[in-house]
Model the fold of this input.
Amino acid sequence: MAVKIRLQRHGKKNFAFYHIVVADTRAPRDGRFIEQLGSYNPNTNPATIVLKADRALAWLNVGAQTSLVVRRILSYEGVLLRKHLQGGVAKGALTQEQADQKFNAWKAERDAKIEAKKAGLSKEAAEKAKTAEAAEAKVNEARAEAIAKRKAEAEEAAKAAAEAAAAEKAAQEAAAAAEANAAEAPAENTEA
Done:
C-alpha cells in the first residue's frame, strides 16, 4: 500500500482550509484517511499551521511520500530539517546534541522572522488606519467648509430678500402716500 501525506480540503467556496492527513494514494482527496496530522489555514496572514511534527517525522521515516504543498509545509515547520539531521546522526557525522542545537538555532531564527512579519503587518495596519483617519478628517473639514459656505450664502440671500421686501414695502407705502396726496390735491383744487 502506497501512503501519502497530503491535504484534505474543508471549508466553503473561496474560503477553504485544509487538514493534513496520511492517506492511501488510491483514496479520494476528501475521503478515507489513516491519520490526521494537523491543519493548514491559508486565509490568515501569515498562514496558520498546526502540525504534529513528531508523527509527521515518523511517517516520513517509514517511507510516506508527500504532496508538493505538504512538502513545503513540512519544510516550513522544520520536519524535513529534523529528518536530515537524524540521517546525519545515524551516519555518525554529528551527535544528537549537535543536531538538537542546530535545529533549535534554526527554529529561533524562523520564529524571529515570523514575529517580525506579524509586527510589520500590525504596524502597516496601524499606518493605514492613521492615513484613513487623516483622509476622513480632511473630507469632513471640506464638507464642513462647504456647509458653512452654503449657510452663509443662504443667510446673504435671506438678508437680500428681506432688504428687497423692505424696499418693496417702502415703495408701496410711498406709492400709497403719493396716491393719497394726489387724491387730496385735486379735492382741494375743486373747492377753490
